[in-house]
Amino acid sequence: MHSRSHTTSRTSTRRAARAAAAALAGALAFSLTACGGDDDSGGNEGGGGNETAETVTLPELDGETLEVAAVWTGPEQANFKKVLAEFEKRTGAKVTFVPAQDPIINFLGSKIAGGAPPDIAMLPQVGAIQQAVDKGWAKPLGAEVQEQLTKNYSQGWQDLGTVDGKQYGVYYKAANKSLIWYNAQVFENAGAEEPKTWDDLLGTAQTVYDSGVTPFSIGGADGWTLTDWFENVYLSQAGPEKYDQLAKHEIKWTDPSVTEALTTLAEIWGKKDYIAGGASGALQTEFPASVTQTFTGGDQPKAGMVYEGDFVQVNIAETDAEVGTDAKVFAFPAVGDTAPVVSGGDAAVILEDSEAAQALATFLASPDAAAIQAKLGGYLSPNKNVDASAYPNEVQRAMAKSLVAAGDDFRFDMSDQAPQAFGGTPGKGEWKALQDFLKNPEDIEGTQEQLEADAAAAYGN
């Protein structure tokens, strides 16, 4: 649970986090419509486009050792290790990746209690950065890191890593969480079209269903995927002001706007034939499997569509499908007047201060590090000086350009702004309440009461 002693800093951080919406939504929708296959034409115009970005200078660190903890697994972990390997090559330091478990704050707490904290942790929630500062774990970033941040990041992304006026986090990885991916062959066979509105999405789902394929794959075993579904519906339907208020628990989860969003979600979640395996199957399906089962099985996969962010591409890469041809994507449809765009991200935070830790944070804030992982796919950087040509296909180049072009006009994942006890813990809080709702989407009132009770306990109000 968050300490309540940093109200001012938390408010300013969330003001930065308030940043998802129309500019990015419009640019993304246009870009995704315009982009075609998996070509390599991207030019050198850059994500924000700085062809002349200098290689970051790093110190000699022969004999130094570092540990970096993150919850990343599979290809995402493997790709990040290649970034760490480049840091080792340039500095002579030895870096060990430490696999962490959700919630990462609890994992770090046990490491710190045992006297063996990692040097750097990749924190996936704004709230987790605040907690790490409140607990005295996080160490401020030095001048070299700040220089890279000032040069390479918009103010909004810098502010997300700031507490009490001090910089603690480097947002190394960003996510656009307002995308729905689909099996192109399924759509072609069904005669389905990319929807622009929620009603269109329901129509598309019915068309796919009528063709003999279950419309949606949902990774309900991972509760965070369900919070992302809710956030997109809520942001578009209730609007950004209400979104900000709910994110700060200034309005209750029993508010009529939440009732409306859950009612809307139930239009899909309440149709068991629309979900691969039904609700019980979805609740046993982890996120990676929700993706791969959409793109395996030719034109008869377990589902025709899967909702989640740009990072879905990491899991598509484990199938025979090609992004841009077999696997295509459209922006999350507008439920209200404007299509939603919800962003997320992972920030590097120093726990054990040293020259080596500061150097690694400096590297992660540079275009050099981000470009390495960008080439590997399934990754977006908020670093505006990463050249767009680094991304492996036109779909990702479009996403990267849209993210950077939006500047500070984005909204950050609501559950990631919440205290981790509510928004980031498996089997508890929002994750559990929405899993229960997926199981029983008729119980809207009971779901709201549970969400409010859990939120009140976590926020302390």
Task: Walk me through this protein's architecture.
This protein is an alpha/beta fold and 461 residues long. The protein folds into 2 domains: 8-39 and 49-175 and 345-412, 3-Layer(aba) Sandwich (D-Maltodextrin-Binding Protein, domain 2), CATH 3.40.190; 179-331, D-Maltodextrin-Binding Protein, domain 2. It is built from 22 helices and 12 strands. The chain has helices spanning 7-17, 22-34, 74-91, 104-113, 126-134, 143-152, 155-160, 184-190, 198-210, 223-238, 240-247, 256-269, 278-282, 287-292, 312-316, 355-364, 367-376, 394-405, 414-417, 420-423, 429-439, 444-459, and strands spanning 65-70, 94-99, 120-123, 162-163, 166-167, 169-176, 179-183, 216-217, 305-307, 327-331, 342-350, 411-412. The strands form 3 sheets. Strands 1, 2, 3, 6, 11 and 12 form a 6-stranded mixed sheet that branches. A 4-stranded mixed sheet has the order 8-9-7-10. A hairpin with a 2-residue loop joins strand 4 and strand 5 (166-167). Helix 6 (143-152) packs parallel to helix 16, helix 10 packs across helix 21 (429-439) and helix 21 (429-439) packs antiparallel against helix 22 (444-459).
